[in-house]
Amino acid sequence: MLRVSSSLGEDFTEVPLSDVTDVKSLKRYLTKAGKPPRFQQRLVHQGEILEDGDMISRLDPPAVELVLLPHNEELPIEDRVVNAVARGINAMEIDRLLNTPQDPDWRDEAGDTALIRACSEGHVDTVRLLIEARSNVNAQNKEGTSPLMGASSMGSRMLVTWLLAGGADVNQRNSEGKCASDLASERRGEEHQKIVKQLYREEEKTDREARRPAA
After folding, report:
1. What single-letter DSSP state applies at residue 89?
2. How far apart are CA 120 and CA 125, in angstroms?
3. Cβ neighbours around 17 below 10 Å, total
């Protein structure tokens, strides 16, 4: 077992060594156990901060200290994730920026978050990272565009599926009164039509749940 203690000495947990391989997988394990996203975690072994790729099996003794960092509010604008996405920065660099760590929902002048922009432009790997960072899947920019609307209009069923699994609201509407299924239906591509059907099913499910009598 691997012992994980708080930097404040307040609590600890024991993690089966068979469940983790490297530091990144341990951070993800801790996130599932209720800790903040891995980007805000630092794991320390005998006074040394561990890198994500360090192997857990090499730790002797098998014990680490967990330090949780707040979001860095002093970052320059060019280092904000939303602006990095706008510049087309690759997912590896996005991962590094999220590790500063920073608020993934910081907005640019248009009200875009990094997730809204990444979904609208189809950056699959970046979207995966932002969802892992717990970016708000229902954020809307000044025009009312949400991540789901962006992904639906762009035509990515994969992104639509991820967003729905993360709690995206199919009934949100933009400043023109259109929801995600409306935007997808305006496109003629085969993928867009599949997205429309997927969103209709989700809308029907949401309506049924809303009409269900309270227990």
Report:
1. -
2. 13
3. 14
Q: What three-state secondary structure class fits 109?
A: coil
As given in the structure block, the two tokens for residue 82 are 């939303």
Query: Which amino acid, one-letter code, is at 105?
Result: D
User: Is residue 68 helix, strand or coil?
Assistant: strand
Per CATH, the number for 2-68 is 3.10.20.90
pTM, full prediction:
0.92
Q: Where in the sequence of the chain do the CATH 1.25.40.20 domains occur?
A: 77-209
Gyration radius of the chain over CA positions: 20
**CB contact at 8 A, 57 and 22:** no
DSSP-H helix ranges across the chain: 23-32, 81-86, 91-98, 114-121, 124-132, 147-154, 157-165, 180-185, 190-211
Strand partners, 45: 48
Query: Is the bond preceding residue 61 a cis peptide, omega within 30 degrees?
Result: yes
77-209 fold: 1.25.40
- How far apart CA 124 and CA 104 sit, in angstroms, is 16
Query: According to CATH, where is 3.10.20.90 located in the chain?
Result: 2-68
- In this predicted model, what pLDDT tens digit does every residue of 166-186 receive, in sequence order? 999 999 999 999 999 999 999
Q: Are 70 and 76 in contact (CB under 8 A)?
A: no
CA dihedral 193, 194, 195, 197 (to 10 degrees): 90
List pLDDT tens digits, range 19-74: 999 999 999 999 999 999 999 999 999 999 999 999 999 999 999 999 999 999 99
